[in-house]
Design goal:
This protein is α/β, with parallel strands linked by helices. The chain contains 14 helices and nine strands. 47% of the residues lie in helices and 13% in strands. Helix 2 runs parallel beside helix 6 and helix 9 crosses helix 12.
């Protein structure tokens, strides 16, 4: 079993697993930095700006806030709708992402409270200039590998703003046993992430996800794209059962991240799908946990490990992203944004 013989691994995989192994510690460090940000007035509506490995933080935070009575919006582009946001989180690991920078410049006039979650770059300078808060996160890694650090920092600030309870850190701490079951040294038979990666390998992953677990499904899609260099598709449940299923390709596997608290209709829909397509074609991902936050956090860890196991199985580099980097260099509009931002910073 290839995934159990990892002693001679290429340094790129060793690096990736080493970062993943610090998932919980990185989250908790990020949380400690975020929770130190002054609380200010408790916001009633919160926007999250960011793309890619930083943008997913907004999806997760928004899912966590969804039952808290606070309204939230997630923006993954150059603009954010004008909604008199009380607080805006600008999340960019590098601080050099043109979409995020332009979206932040676009709300300066409205004067909301702005919090940057970043390792530095132009974003830090812009947000300092407008009097916002900056939470610096773990430097020197690829943005998507900094999810625990950025998520911890964001939830720390939300905790300081009294939008989520401090007790969530207990659920993260309690996730260490689960983390140990998916690490690379844990053998295949006892490792749900290795088993899942092996089932996906050689097939086209079709991810189906629903409401509050959507960010986990979307994270899996993005991690399979960037780490395992795989194409994959994602559909929304139950909607996908009314269209998507008719177009399934030949060699697919449906992957469904699940939490305990799901609508009875969703559960029945997944059961029907499994009966219809066959056990072998439908794989669920479950992590369990005492609370929604813990379930989602454990699922996020699991999908991240799955993506690196798939990189190993496919012999691809899980760290570098040459096409995305090339597109960043080739996009002429980005230069325009940077000039505008530099003029603003002065
Ligand atoms: O994971 C990645 O490397 C990308 O998806 C980046 O997150 C994306 O390009 C945005 O960059 P940043 O996170 O620095 O804003």
């Amino acid at each position: 079993m290839k995934l159990d013989n990892l002693s001679d691994l290429h340094p790129r995989y060793v690096e990736a697993f080493k970062i993943l192994d610090s998932y919980i510690d990185d989250f908790l460090k990020g949380f400690s930095s975020g929770v130190n940000v002054p609380s200010g007035v408790r916001p009633k509506n919160v926007a999250f700006i960011g793309v890619g490995g930083s943008g997913i933080i907004g999806d997760i935070a928004s899912a966590i806030l969804s039952n808290s009575g606070v309204s939230s919006g997630v923006f993954k582009g150059y603009e954010i709708n004008s909604n008199q946001w009380d607080a805006v989180f600008a999340i960019s690991y590098s601080g050099e992402t043109a979409e995020t920078l332009e979206a932040v410049l676009g709300i300066v006039e409205e004067n909301p409270r702005v919090v940057a979650i970043t390792s530095g770059g132009r974003l830090e300078k812009v947000v300092k200039k407008i009097g916002g808060d900056v939470v610096r996160i773990r430097p020197g890694i690829q943005p998507r590998y900094a999810l625990p650090s950025m998520l911890g920092a964001t939830l720390g600030v939300l905790c300081s703003m009294k939008l989520i309870p401090h007790s969530i850190t207990k659920y993260i701490e309690n996730s260490r046993n689960f983390l140990n079951t998916i690490k690379s040294e844990r053998k295949f038979d006892e490792n749900p992430a290795k088993r899942a990666a092996t089932r996906i390998h050689g097939r086209l992953p079709i991810i189906y996800a629903y409401d509050r677990v959507w960010p986990v499904g979307y994270r899996l899609k993005c991690q399979l794209n960037e780490n395992a260099k795989m194409f994959c598709h994602i559909g929304y449940l139950p909607e996908a059962l009314h269209n998507d299923v008719e177009g399934l390709p030949d060699d697919f596997i449906v992957v469904v991240p699940r939490i305990d608290a799901e609508h009875e209709g969703i559960r029945a829909g997944i059961d029907a799908l499994r009966d219809n397509l066959g056990e072998d074609r439908v794989m669920e991902l479950r992590a369990g946990g005492e609370d929604f936050i813990q379930e989602v956090f454990q699922l996020l860890m699991m999908v991240d490990y799955i993506s690196v196991y798939l990189a190993v199985l496919r012999d691809v580099d899980p760290i570098s992203i040459p096409r995305i980097s090339g597109l960043r260099r080739a996009n002429k509009y980005y230069e325009k944004v940077f000039r505008r931002v530099d003029g603003f910073i002065g």
